[in-house]
Every structure is written in C-alpha cells, then in structure tokens.
Amino acid sequence: MNENENILEILHYPNAILLKKSEPVEKFDDELKKLIKSLFATMHASNGVGLAAPQVGILKKLAVIEYEDKKIVLINPKVIEKKGIQDDEEGCLSFPGIYAHVNRPQWVKIETLDEQGNKQIIEAEGYTARAVLHEMDHLEGKLFIDYLSNLKKNAIRKKVSKHTGGHF
Ligand code: NI
C-alpha cells in the first residue's frame, strides 16, 4: 500500500446509498486515479473480485474488477453486446456471507472509458463477465438479490437484519 491509496469503508445492505443511481464520471484527474487505487486496495483488503464506487458511498459510474490476474477499470460503462447464459453462485461485498445463484450472460462486450477518458472496448466471459455485469448493476442501484424470487429475497433480508440487529 502506498500514500495514494486508502482502505475505504464498504457500505452494507440495506444502506440506502446502494439503491441509488450513480452519475457519470466527468473529471479525469488525479483524484479519479487515486480513487481507482483506493477501490482496488479496498477490494483486495476484503478478498473481493469487484467493487463499485457506490459501495464506498461515492455515486459515480466507476468500478474495479480483478479476477485471475486480469484488472479491469469500468468508467461510465455500457453493454454493447451480450451472448449466452450462465448460472453460477455470486456474492457481494455489501452482503457479507450471502451467496445466491443468478443467471447472467456468458459473454459481454462493453464500451467503457480509461483513466484518461479514452473510449475502450472490453470483452469478458464466464466469471469475469459475471463480475463486470454485477458491478455495472451497482452503478444503476441494482443489487444481485433483485434477480431472486421474493421468497429468497425475504430470507436474505431476515438474515441481514440479524447481522445488523434489525436497524434498517
Ligand atoms: Ni456487489
């Protein structure tokens, strides 16, 4: 860890910030680069494979992913193509200890911006595609439990309320 990165506090469900839509990134400055470093550092400290800015209380369309040594930074990302379907278990750093099966496309092509604000095309498949789409949902205030049946969703809400002592 160096002086340009900080471990940030990760917000847990049901924090209302997690349900808000993020604003596009407009400034491609040193502050953005520092925030990206801090997101990676915070994700690493929690052994996660992805972390979105709203999860640390910053409502900007920015997320980081690192899976099998591949680092991805998403800035104002858009899905331009998707193919196939996969069913796998996923979790979220905002829901410690909770996992659920979610269907996602098997492959995606994303248009995103790099740290300098230049357009980039990224292709991802399998678990990386899952992570990319999970983080992109966070930027819209959408959570992985939103894909589940009401029954499963309520079971998770009950479990979470036990963890937090019932203070919603
Ligand atoms: Ni998440």
Task: Write up this protein.
It is a single chain. This protein is an alpha+beta fold and 168 residues long. Helix content is 26%, strand content 28%. It has helices spanning 30-45, 126-139, 150-163; strands spanning 50-52, 62-67, 70-75, 78-83, 86-91, 99-104, 107-113, 119-125. The strands form three sheets. A three-stranded antiparallel beta sheet has the order 1-2-3, with helices on both faces. The protein has a three-stranded antiparallel beta sheet with strand order 4-7-8. A two-stranded antiparallel ribbon has the order 5-6. The model has no long low-confidence stretch (mean pLDDT 94). Nickel (II) ion is lined by residues 92-94, 134, 138.
Q: Which stretches are poorly predicted, pLDDT < 50 over at least 5 residues?
A: none
Order of H and E elements: HEEEEEEEEHH
**Separation of termini?**
34 Å
Which term fits the overall shape?
Answer: globular
Helix content: 25-40%
Q: Which structural class do you get from the secondary structure elements?
A: alpha+beta
Please indicate the percent range of residues in DSSP E strands (runs of 2 or more).
Answer: 25-35%
**Distinct ligand kinds:** nickel (II) ion
Spatial strand order of the main sheet = 1-2-3
Counted beta strands = 8
Number of helices: 3
Overall mean confidence score, pLDDT: 94
Sheet with the most strands, sense and barrel status? 3 strands, antiparallel
| Rg calculated over all Cα atoms | 16 Å
